[in-house]
Amino acid sequence: MEKLKYALIGAGGNAEKKHIHGYKALPDVDVVAICDVDVGKASAMAARHQVERVYSDYKDMIERERPDIVSVVTPNFLHAEITEYALAQGVNVHCEKPLSLNADEARRILAAQERSGKRVMIGLNNRFTNEAVYLKKWIDDGRLGHIYSAKAGWVRRAGIPGRGTWFTDKSRAGGGVLIDLGAHYLDLALYLMGRPKVTYAAGRIHQNFVHTTTRNRNGYTGIEGGLFDVEDAADGYLGIQGGASLALDFSWASNIEEDRFYVELLGTKGGASLVNGTLKLFGEHEGVCLDLTPKLKLNPNLRFANEFRHFADGVRDTEQALIAPAEDGVYFAEIVDAFYESAASGAPVMLASAASPAGVR
Ligand SMILES: NC(=O)c1ccc[n+]([C@@H]2O[C@H](COP(=O)([O-])OP(=O)(O)OC[C@H]3O[C@@H](n4cnc5c(N)ncnc54)[C@H](O)[C@@H]3O)[C@@H](O)[C@H]2O)c1
After folding, report:
1. Beta strand pairing status for 349-350 and 198-206?
2. In terms of CATH, what superfamily is 127-299+328-350?
3. Pocket test for ligand 1, best of 59, 94, 96, 223 (most atoms within 8 A of CB)
4. Of the given ranges (31-35, 167-171, 228-232, 297-301), which has the lowest mean pLDDT?
């Protein structure tokens, strides 16, 4: 079998943590090049991972290397531009979350994907954990019944990433904690619920920790005096067709005892909680309430392996549905846009025809 040629765009923190390891570990993929506008970063990463060539311009890299797949692991505002360019050049794209700054950009990516016949997958690694894979099947097998109520959140006590960098600049990030951590756990709740049609969003955003430095996240360097015009907390509510509800709670900084990331689902036949990575299932059997704790941590953690293997397989076999297709990026962005609009106006925002379940590609 001929190997797939792979190249990485953006050699920052997440590329080091996820993408370079993920693709290097696949025996049928050749990692041929790394690109970063900061060519020193690209060179250092290439040396650490034995990658032959480095570039400072992604267009130049795509033209010379003609890869089958690129990862886009740049700041959010470049996702649409780079993804559209790569697709137009006939390259499949593994783009980090969030797919785009907003729904307009996400729809442009979808149109570019349709024109190119190539594929886009979003780097939604939380859909690929052992726990999420198990819970998704549990739900799809009907074990929760109708999910009528859900809660999703990621609350941190001191977890502001890159203060003053692109992370806290709305024009480059698209928003604050909601678009950053919501792209993980709001996304996961909606995915587990089967991408229900959201009928309205009612949200509030908060900005209370802009001037403190005690709430910065370890491991992220900031820029003194850089812009911070996004929310550090967001909470609210999504109304879902059929009477269901989804309550949201996200913060980069807040006065809580402990950080917590979670999805809690209440169904007519059973419930589920995925809290800080541990899955528990609730129900009843023969008149007795029953809790189940699947021991998934005893299995190898396949989170990243699942994601990278899945996309490489999806590039080889285009009939195989993708777990995190570009369509879901449009769905998510429409909901987030409505949430921010609601926060700005102080009133719920209806999603008339938008946010309907997307077709799986
Ligand atoms: N899935 C996850 O768990 C996860 C975790 C962290 C970050 N992310 C996402 O990954 C993306 C990158 O985040 P990060 O934390 O690695 O940020 P980062 O700032 O550490 O890295 C971004 C890199 O992109 C480079 N870059 C900027 N413009 C470029 C261009 N035109 N061409 C090539 N390279 C360019 C920068 O020099 C930098 O090295 C973001 O979209 C973020 O939301 C996802």
Report:
1. antiparallel
2. Dihydrodipicolinate Reductase; domain 2 (3.30.360.10)
3. 96
4. 297-301
